[in-house]
Amino acid sequence: MDDKKDVVLKYVIEEYLEDEDDEITYDTPLISGGIVDSFSMVSLKRFLENKYSISIPDEKATPEAFDSVDKIVVLVNEFLK
Amino acid sequence: MSFSDKVRTVYQEQIKSIRDAGIFKQERFIHSSQAADIEVEFPAGSSLKKVINMCANNYLGLSSHPDVVKAAHEGLDSRGYGMSSVRFICGTQDIHRELEKKVTEFLGTEDTILFPSCMDANAGVFEAVLTKDDVMISDRLVHASIIDGIRLCSAVHDTFKHSNMEHLEKKLQLHADKRLKLVITDGVFSMDGDTAKLDEMVALCEKYDAMILVDDSHASGFIGKTGRGTHEKCGVMGKIDIITTTFGKALGGASGGCVSGRKELVEMCRQKARPYLFSNTIAPVVVSGVLKVLSILSGSTERRDKLEANTAYWRKGLTEAGFVLKAGDTPIVPVMLFNAKLSQDVSRDLYDEGIYAIGFFFPVVANGQARIRTQVSAGHETHHLDKALEAFIKVGKKYDILGKTKQEIIEKYGL
Description:
The structure holds 2 protein chains of 2 kinds. Chain A is mainly alpha-helical. Chain A has 3 helices and no strands. Chain A has a single domain, classed as Orthogonal Bundle (Non-ribosomal Peptide Synthetase Peptidyl Carrier Protein, Chain A). Chain B is α/β, with parallel strands linked by helices. In chain B, helix 2 runs antiparallel to helix 12, helix 4 runs parallel beside helix 12 and helix 5 crosses helix 10. Chain B has a 7-stranded mixed β-sheet, with helices on both faces. In chain B, strands 1-2-3-12 form a 4-stranded mixed β-sheet.
């Protein structure tokens, strides 16, 4: 579980943070906190789908479901089952 | 009455919150033609003040050029004032098609279609050429009009970090399965004045079979050895699939824009782009003016050469005076102040000294990146730039920012 969290956290840091000194944690609000904009969610969704060989339907890929690393991992696990 | 007190209150509160946030925009009325020397009424009702304009997009100084004004007069006399029709009904004159051909020639593309503005070109182009099976991959600092156009298009949208080619390549790999891929960038970025790495971007697009769109609004007419734009500067003339640009800046500064590029893409715009289909095109008087502008620029590089020399002179002066500038070589020269209030104070004091230059701060630029954006013109003479520099130095001394680093300015004024 933590492995998955670290993979997602690493991706979010590399993908979205302009300043590498900024710190985010598993529960940092990503979309409501302005770190990831709604346009950029698409790359996160595609990354998860490719990485874990899953398909996340658009209706499940909501800003709420993508709002923190914790929540993203819950979503991924739902489709891994 | 539907506009009840309750409804009015909703809007009054919204306007108040804009004021409270310090981002209320106010117009300054210019009582003269657009030029290096202008007469301004500000605040409204005050007496006129003569100032040097350091914030116009009048890069080539052609906004009030006598030959352009004369050509516009002749166009008005021979082709009338308005068209009262969209292009495909009865709103196309011979000079509209003539201008499309001249722009095609100037930019080195295959074909061109005019739009009422570049804002409209960007609003219409994406949905005209892409579908939901495709992907748009844009630089994260592209102009707001591109963002609006992207929102209107059903293709998937993704972004890459500003001018980061490694990141762009990753995105091209990520979306390799899409039917069509379109990479989107500004040629010159309007707030920082930096130039897109079009040579590297074209190479990546060729490698991953992607198209590329460049908004060259802050470049057409003066960037590159003969002023063709960023694609000329980067050595990729003929390799840009879509160029969108404006006639509202260097190319006469009136209004109008276009999509220029591969003939099939231009044809798709002619068939499907909604701002083209449902709005009148550029008025004949403006078309006539732009035709003259292109004829002037095709005959001589004198004006863009003067702009280049002025830009170098201005950058050198500010740097030697000890200001922190954004690096670059375009006529957009941002003087960095970092603190929003400081940018407003400096702008106000410059105005008192007879220099018209605007402070930009969040949300127009990133938080902590407040600046005075200065813009050089071929219409400036050395005495304009010297006087402006003198004023900048005087104000810079007042706020004790000359010779100070970014860190020192932030320590003194905060972010």
